[in-house]
Amino acid sequence: MALTALACNAAAQQVDIATPTRQSAAVIVANRTIIMLRGPIAGYSARERVTNVSRRIDEVLDSDPSPTVSTEEVEGGTQVLLGGKLAFVVTGIDIDQ
Questions:
Q1: Entry pTM
Q2: Above pLDDT 90, what percent of the chain?
Q3: What span, in angstroms and rounded, lies between the C-alpha atoms of 88 and 51?
């Protein structure tokens, strides 16, 4: 009886290693969360994606404090543009499901 309970407990504790763990990191502008990016994607962790996005946003805001925000559908996601320049891409991995 105890052996059966141990076997059931071990089976219940198995971890699904086929599904990779999603990492999340927030893109924050002016103390506001703009989007939660996830990773890894294309070899970049969520934190690396946010670091790159924050740099691109800062570069645009340094030259234009009120850039036009637009989106463009691309294969695999949606590009978010600031002043016509790429800020980030929202992909399927970034969407809550």
A1: 0.75
A2: 70
A3: 11
